[in-house]
Structures are given as structure tokens and as C-alpha cells.
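Team,

Forwarding the record for the chain on the shared tracking sheet. I've put the sequence and predicted structure together so nobody has to dig through attachments.
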Amino acid sequence: MGKTIMVLTLTGRVMHEAVSFIVFSLLDLLDFILCFAYKVADFFIEAEWKPCYCSSAKEAITSSGKILVSEQGESKIVCLSSTKVELEEVSDTLYSRCSLLSEVSKFTVNELKRIKVEKGTTTTRQSCKKIKKGTVRSKFTVNSTIVEMLQGKIGGQQLHPIPRWSDCDCKFCTSWTTCSKETLFVRAEGPEDRKAKEDVLFIHGFISSSAFWTETLFPNFSNAAKSTYRLFAVDLLGFGRSPKPTDSLYTLREHLEMIEQSVLEPYKVKSFHIVAHSLGCILALALAVKHPDSVKSLTLLAPPYYSVPKGVQGTQYVMRMVAPRRVWPPIAFGASIACWYEHISRTICLLICKNHRLWEFLFKLVTRNRFRTYLLEGFFCHTHNAAWHTLHNIICGTASKLDGYLDTVRDRLKCDVNVIHGRDDEVIPLQCSFNVQDRVPRARVKVIEKKDHITIVVGRQKAFARELEEIWKRASG
């Protein structure tokens, strides 16, 4: 009996691998075809060939005003302007995602160029030393897509119209364009500045919005908590009602600066608690490290912290963990499409996000308005550009930084650290939370039985609101 089960398990695994290989090979081909289709559509609709990340990096150093991409070690781009040299984190997973189609097409070219590249290495390094009267010791290559995408931004010009033809142009999605100052949408509740004793910042996860907190937790806090704490929930850059600039790369720096400009500075927040979910946990850690003396407690829900093995490139490892190119379970299949296929995911956004009003109407019609649609609104109201870059630059691109962030929290910060995870979470493995505890031993890990990535909050908001109040009280005491 045991041998039979083992054989069946092995057979099922082999069949799954075979089906996954066939399906994703076809998707590789489909994404290649869609790349050309969108190039043509963009040209005829917007009168310009739009860049994408299918282009390979050019082995050259461009003149001043271009962007350099390091493909050795940590991935960075350098914006050379007339006033400063600015570093931004850009994940190499944006333009380097190995697949069968790409490997076959590149193999012959790489072999033919191998000797030439080896001979040209010395020349390239010497050219790098001439940039900005200093020395650049790493070997840099240029990703032509990033150069094109930021050329307008460096020159102070907007590269793409707002919105693009494939984005939604309803008032909800473009409300930020009518405001003279570009800041995040912030939902603030609680007493006035002088009466509030402490502040709390809520950061939502990927393709979500502030409603994840305001529709669940905010109504369930006790009167004592509402009179003690100022509660701030933001729509992250590119999501909900917040700005969705088409010339942004949605880097960690951009997300953090927008939170600071929208919450910390205008509301004069000096010390605060942070509650973050999923992708928001990465921003919470980065924000805590940037303001080590201000954070009083960190509450991380399902943090996507994958322990990267030594000698493995972090960005590519995390991408494989988040999006394993498997057809089962369905959540892994969906994540793989969103992460690996730039043009297929753009098509999905075109069909769903651009037409979110229709989908919301149909959903309300089918359910007869028995289900609140705030989760759907958070899921629908973003652009492909925002989701694509945030997914890669935050989740994948910070893989090599999270160890340092957690070490700083462990060694320099005195704040209370709490990690909460649903036992049935299929999006972020439970082990990720224990990885945080391994790095920060004082972190408390609480596993919620029979709850997943969303129901860890939705459906247990009253209990979770009480838990947060206890955490804040303990951290302040």
C-alpha cells in the first residue's frame, strides 16, 4: 500500500511538472506575440513606440543623462542629472526572467558574443571610470527600457499621457490628477493633534487599498482607542485613489517618500506604531529603519520574508518562491502569470481594471448587493505599470535588503515586534514569519488557525482590533 501511494505521488508530480512545462512554454510564446501587438497598438494610439522589458541590456555606457543598470551583485540604476547622481533600487527580475523561449533565443547569440564580451571587459571597465569625475568599480550595463522610461522624467517632462489608453479613466481612478499636489490618499481618524497621545500607520498589501483597514478595523476599535490614537491608512503609490504616475518605476524610495510626504510630514507624526500586511511589511521595515527613534511597535501580518540561501541571487530566488511557474495550486498559477509575463498581465489589467465598473456592477447584480465590494475596489483600482513595478521592485528587489533591515530592528530599535500569520495562507508561506523570528528573536509570532492571507483580518476584525490595542498598550507601557 505504501509503495502504491509513493508511485502515485511520484506519477502525479511528474505529470504536474510536464503540464506546467507545456502551459508556461505556451504562455512564453503568447507573451512574445502580445509584446509585438502592444508595440503596434501603442504606436497607432499614442503615436510612439513604447518601451517594455523584453529588450535585452545593451553592453555600453551611455552619455550623461542616461541610466546605468548594474547587473552584478545588487541591481541599481543611476540617474545622471545636472544637479545630482541619484541611486534607485530596480530589480533585475524586471528585465531578466529566464524562460524556455528566451533561453533558446539567447543561447546562440550569447555563444557568438562570448569571446567578444571577454575581450571587451577591460574596455568597459575603463569607460566606467570616466563617469562623474570619479570611479565606478562595478561593471555596468545599460538596460535600454529603463533609459527610455526615465528620459522624460530626468528632463522634467512627462513621458506618458495620464491615463494611457489601456488604463481606466474614470473619476475614481484619475481623481488624483485634479489635485495640484501629488500626495497619497490618506484616511485619518481620531482626535486632533493636541489631544492624540500616539499615532498609528496602516500599510496595505499588494493590489489592495486603505479600505482593507478602514472597512474592517477602524469601526471596531474601542472608544478609548479612538480617543487615544490617530489612525492613518494610506493608499500606496499606484493603488486605490492615490497617484498612478506612468513615468514612475515604483521603487522602494518612491513609496517611502510618498508615505513621508503624505502622512509623517503634514500630520507632524513624531512617534508611531505600524501595522502592515503582506507587501506592506517590507515598506514597514524600511520605514522603521529610516526612522529608528520614532517607531514604537511593528505589527507584521504575513510578511514575505524568504530566507535566501548563501551564494544564490536573492531577487531571482524570491521571484521563484513567489511565482514558481506551476499550474497548481491556482494561487501559484496566478502569481506566476502576474510576475513572469509583462504583456499577459497587462492584458489582464486591460480586461479587468480598465472595466472595473462593469465587473463591480455584475458582481453586485449576482450577489444582490449582499457582499461589500471594498476588497474588489482595492483589487481593481491600479494600473499595470504600478502593479508590475511594485511587485518586482518591492517584493523581489528588496530580497538582499531585508536581512539588513531585520538586523537593524534587532540591534538598534527597541520597538515591540509582533508577527501574525494565518495557518492556511497559500500566498505567503507560514515559514516566512518564523524566518522573521529567527532574525529578530524578540519578535512574537502568532499563528491564527483556519485563517488565510485575507481572513487573517477580514472576518475576525473585532478580535484583531482588540489584539492591536493590547500591542499598542504594551509597547507604550
